[in-house]
Structure formats: structure tokens, C-alpha cells
Amino acid sequence: MIKRYSLDRMEKIWEEQTKWQKMLDVEIAACSAWAKLGKIPKASLSRIKKKAKFSLKRIRQIEQQTKHDIIAFLTSVAENVGADSRFIHMGLTSNDAIDTGQALQLKDASDILIADLKTLLTVLKKKARKYKHAPMAGRSHNVHAEPITFGLKLALWYEETKRNIERLEQAKQVVCVGKLSGAVGTYSNIDPRVENMVLKTLGLGREPVANQVVQRDRHAQYVSTLAIIGSSLEKFTTEIRNLQHTEILEVEEFFSKKQKGSSAMPHKRNPITCERISGLARVLRANSQAAMENIALWHERDISHSSVERIILPDSTILLDYMLVKFTGIIDNLIVYPENMLKNLNKTKGLMFSQRILINLVEKGLTREQAYRIVQRNALAVWKQGVDFKTLLENDADFEGVLTKKEIEQCFDLKYVLRNVNTIFKRINI
């Protein structure tokens, strides 16, 4: 059962309340680490854990004065904690909390996206198996080539989705790191053991060498991975859109009973969701460019990346979540017309077997140039005259007698051309 998309799943991760809570989790974990090292009294830690909270309204009020959001946040927390708040943020810089808290958000967002991809993988596998032996025209340069099956097309998407899962899992590992190493990353006023304990508690990796920030090549890789996944979805939906052409109509995006396709033309059934996904992929790619621009910061850090990430990280993860759920629904409900696939396959009157004829002629002793000339001459006649390819060959004086009638029939055997489909499916474990 494919779940319907809900903004709550991903949007909640990027709400302001969640952002500050993740940073508070970092600060409390740091206090716990300091307490283990004997720098904070246990009674103070207990009171901090009990009283530490913040108010979004109060943070905004304070920020109006300070023009510094982290100081506003810490002040709001301090107003609730009281005297023990002097131990909060001890030895830390703003980005120790910001980057580590953001890594927690990205970890949660990645888990949702990976789950989305695995659901898509399951649906693609099911559909590929169903249409494993449904023959259709393979197309190169928009022109009929040799036959494939629709199941093979879906198997190709299945394998690419597997790679996208691997990419995202790697990108998640790369970006889900934190740092608690102080103002410019030198641990000048914090014990490295604090960082180790905090990151272990939070389930994050460590930035081995930092300046004031976790390095933004990590985020660029992550957002670029989201863009690659989006581009895969665009590739898949573009193919569906092409196969839904009226002149082709081999597959069709599901069209609900009360759905309308056009304000002017009641007959229209348009692949609008596929088109939407194709368009949204462009946004993900644009965001990846912005993430690349964030890599080059001045000296030990500047703040030019911050405003960009407030847009591209929530937008990209929320957007890809939406696209994945929508596309999974498209595949799950895809209308497939195997009879049209076969009908279209036969439109070229046997031309799809031209290479098989070519190979057989060469095996009979003709040079490749001789064989090619015979096959191409008759193939072009099919295009111009609309006559059956096999008939033209049988009436060609240069072809006559080279192959037996049985051998000719074998050359036009669709099952022979597709005999290795099972091998391909077995290779990718579908």
C-alpha cells in the first residue's frame, strides 16, 4: 500500500521549533560531557536538564536587540535555567551548536528519503516482474531499434534507484557530522573528549579537522546527491511522458474518475504529475549549484553560506520527499498497454530483425559490406514502400538462396532476440 504524501513528515524536521530543540540537545549533551569530566557539578547538570527550554517568541524578541540568533537562543534558555546557565555553551562557538544540530536534522531527513527510495524500489521490482516478458520497441534517436521488454525498462530504473540509495546513504554519512572544537576549531577552550562524548551520544560522525564550521563540501555532496536522484526521477517521468504520446500510447499516467485534463478540450488525459516531477528536478539542480557556491568561505569562516542553507536544505529534502512519493504512486498506478507495445513493434514490418539477418549473411560467407548493402537496401524499401521486410528480402536476387526458409524464419523469431531477459533479471536479483 503506497502512503499518501504528507508535508508533516519532512516539514516538521525543518520547523524552527525543531531547529532550536536540536541545538538544545547539543548544548545539554555538552553539559553532560563536561559533568563527566568534573567541570560541571552533577546538581547543576540535573537542574539544567530539568529546566532547559526556550520560547520562539522570546528568541525573536531578544534577536531584535542582539541581531544574533544564537545569543538570543542562549539568553532565552538562560532565563529558564537561572544561575546554572553559566555552564551552557562553555567553550563552544555558535556553529558548534548550529552545524551539529543541523546534522541531526539532516540525519532525520535522510532517513525519510532512504525509506522513500526503498518503497519505490519495491514497487519498481513488482512492476518489472509483471512486465518482464512484455515486448516493446527499443528506441534510439527516437527511432525503433531492436526489441526490448517493458520489464527491462523498469529493471533499468530499479537498478538506478538502487544506486541512488547507495549514493544517499554515503552522502548521509558524509554530511551527518558535527564539531565541538571551539571558535576556529583548535579546541582552545574545550576538551576534545567533550566532542567525542557528545557526537557518540547524538549518533553523529566527527569533522576530523574543522575551522569554525563543518566544511561545506559535505553539504554540497549531499545536495548534489539529492539533485542526482531528482534527475533520475526526471529521466523516468520523461520516458513515461514520451510513451504516453497519442501516437505511441504504450503507458499512461493514471487519470482519476473526476479528473479534468483541459479547460478547453474535454478529451485530454495529460501526464501532469510526470511533468511536475520533471520541472521540480530543475529546482533540485539549481539548489545543488548554490550548495557548490557555499564551499568557498573566507578564511576560517564567513556567514555567506548560512542564509543559503536556510533555503536549500529544507527545500531540497522536502521537495525530493514529495517527488519520490508522487513518482512511487505513478508507477504503482501506471496504466500499461502491452497490446499497443506489440502493435507499435510491428509497425516497421520486421525491420527490428535487421541485425539478425546481417549476422546470418556474414556467417554464410558474405563480407560485412556485402551483407550490409543487401540488408540496408531492403530496409530502406520498407520505409519507402511499406512492404514487409521479409518479403522484400526473399525477392532480392542477391539474398535468394543464401539462407534457407527455416533459417529466415529463425531470423524473425522475437523470442530468440529476447532470450536473455531472464539472465538480466537474475543478475540484478529481481
Tally of helical segments: 18
Q: How big a fraction of the residues is strand?
A: under 5%
Unreliably modeled segments? none
The CATH architecture of the largest domain: Up-down Bundle
Taken together, the total number of domains comes to 2
Radius of gyration: 30 Å
Structural summary, described in words:
The structure is a single chain. With 430 residues, the protein is mainly alpha-helical. 63% of the residues lie in helices and 5% in strands. It folds into two domains: 11-135 and 145-341, Fumarase/aspartase (Central domain) (Fumarase C, Chain A, domain 2, Up-down Bundle), CATH 1.20.200; 351-411, Fumarase/aspartase (C-terminal domain) (Ribonucleotide Reductase Protein R1, domain 1). It has helices at residues 7-11, 16-36, 42-51, 56-66, 69-81, 94-130, 150-175, 192-202, 217-243, 272-293, 304-332, 338-345, 354-363, 368-385, 389-394, 405-411, 414-417, 421-427; strands spanning 135-140, 143-149, 177-178, 205-206, 251-252, 335-336. The chain has a two-stranded antiparallel sheet with strand order 1-2. The protein has a two-stranded parallel ribbon with strand order 3-4. It has a two-stranded antiparallel ribbon with strand order 5-6. The two termini are 20 Å apart. The model has no long low-confidence stretch (mean pLDDT 95).
